[in-house]
Specification:
Length: 345
Amino acid sequence: MDKMKLFPVLAAIMCIPCMASAQTSGMDPEGSLVYSLPRTSVRLEVVAEREAFYAGPYAKYAGKYLGIEARQKDAVTFTVKSVRMTPLVEADQECRYSIAPGAGMPAFLSLTSQGLVSISAGASEGTEWRFPSARGADFAEKGVSSNLTSESTTLYRNVKNESSYNKVAVQQEMVVQKSPDARAREAADMIFNLRKKRVQIITGDTDATFSGEALNSAIEEIARLEKEYMEMFIGYSEYSEQKMNYEVVPSVGNESQMYVAFRLSDTKGLVPAEDMSGKPYLLEFAVQPVSVPAGKSSPAKGNVAHYRIPATCEVKLSDGVNVLLQSRMPVYQLGVESTFPFIVK
């Protein structure tokens, strides 16, 4: 937010002249110049981060074989990553005035080019919606050990003798599926073996000789394999971003000057303030007091110009406990509306 560029524009809008009567309804008077007093809106450009965590298939064995704690359930979480706050000036349609044309109008209008009929109601806004469909966990091709093992079992067959049948033990090899515990133990053994190999290569305690690029390549490959095996225990996360724009228009009728700017849902991420499924983020305006002008003044007579002096506000964005963003900005509609006389020749 570039405040230094914003203040000259605000100062020019402050000097807008206008007639004492506002146009509240119906058609604008024909042949007259109609304009609005300025109003401030606050744009919040919010970026949230989505973490999709996938628990490893051997998570419950992490403590047994690796001595570490691992998350054992898949989860999706959202956090607010960044917020950019920008004040915008727009026409206040509830405060519209008209000026009757006169001989002195061209010179008069040359000083008040801001905030007249050409005032913009804010920049065009674009939004990026939601995330692509969530993917399932993918642990395929992680780990290179076999899922099968050889297991010995003892069978018996009957052997006929001269007068009876006797049971004779016969040893037979069978191929069966490994238990999850056995696969976890094998993966843990591989992790420790890889770590041992890395130390041997770095210290030169190995029959093979590594140097230069060969050494770096060997270390990187060992690190990659170790990461794959570790993910089978500790799982892995995928991250993506959600970007949304929100606008808050302060109202004089709000005594607390506290507004729900947006909400953060555990399942949908950033949602509008009206969506009660999310945690609220509050935007609070603390209006600085305006001093009474010194000296005496006489009531204005004849044609008068209406203008607004913006209130300087301390603006805070919080989640109800922690302050995420704090700044100062001028807010027109919370300030003072006054008049000064002018002569139309």
